[in-house]
Amino acid sequence: YQGVDTTSVTLSWVMYVLGKHPHVQDRIVEELNEKIPNFGDGKLTVNILSSLDYLGRTIKEVLRLYPSVPFIGRQIYKPLTIGDHTILPGTSIFINVFALHRNEKHFENPEKFDPDRFLEENKKDRHRFAFVPFSAGSRNCIGK
């Protein structure tokens, strides 16, 4: 059941965003019509889905602004020093994904909905952990 909640929450936000930004919805429809001209024939493949670039960027932007997992919890297992502070083993910490994804250091105009911020040329200089909708590293979400 772990993926059910995150999927339903994400799809709900996608529908909200499409309603709020009709130009995004129109562009997705254009992309679908272009890449899947015979959508009703039942021949939708993983390759076709992977080719839907604008739809993919739109979903990433939805996950950035409205993460289905807004906080990630971890427990420190060895001393961790950050600046002048040491966090001791056994301490619970939380990463505020919602705030991270709206950090101006990583995302210009962070409150603006802009799927094109996920174009290769726009994300090439971004820190690899600036966008972590399903966590990152060795404890990353298996369903990602």
UniProtKB/TrEMBL annotation:
<dbReference type="InterPro" id="IPR036396">
    <property type="entry name" value="Cyt_P450_sf"/>
</dbReference>
<dbReference type="GO" id="GO:0005506">
    <property type="term" value="F:iron ion binding"/>
</dbReference>
<dbReference type="InterPro" id="IPR017972">
    <property type="entry name" value="Cyt_P450_CS"/>
</dbReference>
<keyword id="KW-0492">Microsome</keyword>
<keyword id="KW-0503">Monooxygenase</keyword>
<protein>
    <recommendedName>
        <fullName>Cytochrome P450</fullName>
    </recommendedName>
</protein>
<dbReference type="GO" id="GO:0004497">
    <property type="term" value="F:monooxygenase activity"/>
</dbReference>
<keyword id="KW-0560">Oxidoreductase</keyword>
<dbReference type="InterPro" id="IPR002401">
    <property type="entry name" value="Cyt_P450_E_grp-I"/>
</dbReference>
<comment type="similarity">
    <text>Belongs to the cytochrome P450 family.</text>
</comment>
<dbReference type="GO" id="GO:0016705">
    <property type="term" value="F:oxidoreductase activity, acting on paired donors, with incorporation or reduction of molecular oxygen"/>
</dbReference>
<keyword id="KW-0408">Iron</keyword>
<keyword id="KW-0256">Endoplasmic reticulum</keyword>
<dbReference type="GO" id="GO:0005789">
    <property type="term" value="C:endoplasmic reticulum membrane"/>
</dbReference>
<feature type="binding site" description="axial binding residue">
    <location>
        <position position="141"/>
    </location>
    <ligand>
        <name>heme</name>
    </ligand>
</feature>
<dbReference type="InterPro" id="IPR050196">
    <property type="entry name" value="Cytochrome_P450_Monoox"/>
</dbReference>
<dbReference type="InterPro" id="IPR001128">
    <property type="entry name" value="Cyt_P450"/>
</dbReference>
<dbReference type="Pfam" id="PF00067">
    <property type="entry name" value="p450"/>
</dbReference>
<keyword id="KW-0479">Metal-binding</keyword>
<keyword id="KW-0349">Heme</keyword>
<dbReference type="GO" id="GO:0020037">
    <property type="term" value="F:heme binding"/>
</dbReference>
<keyword id="KW-0472">Membrane</keyword>
